[in-house]
Design a protein that fits this description.
This protein is 6% helix and 42% strand. With 65 residues, it is mostly beta strands.
C-alpha cells in the first residue's frame, strides 16, 4: 500500500494494489475510486484533502494480530 499527499493539488492518493487502473469513478464528490480490469478497487483519491481529513500529512498505521 502506498499513500501520497500532494500539497500543490491538495490531493491524497491511496494505492491499495500496484496494478494498472482500468477505470476511475467519482463515486461521491471529491472521492475518486480506481478499479482494475476485474472491477476490484485498487486505490482512491481524495480531492481537497486538507478540508476532508484531519491532517493529510500524518499517517498512523496499526497491524492487528
Amino acid at each position: 500500500m502506498k499513500i501520497t499527499y500532494d500539497p500543490d493539488t491538495d490531493t491524497l492518493t491511496v494505492v491499495l494494489k500496484d496494478t494498472p487502473v482500468a477505470e476511475s469513478d467519482e463515486d461521491k464528490p471529491g472521492v475518486i475510486l480506481d478499479f482494475d480490469d476485474q472491477g476490484d478497487v485498487v486505490g482512491f483519491e481524495i480531492l481537497d484533502a486538507s478540508r476532508r481529513v484531519t491532517d493529510p500529512r500524518h499517517v498512523e498505521f496499526t497491524a492487528v494480530a
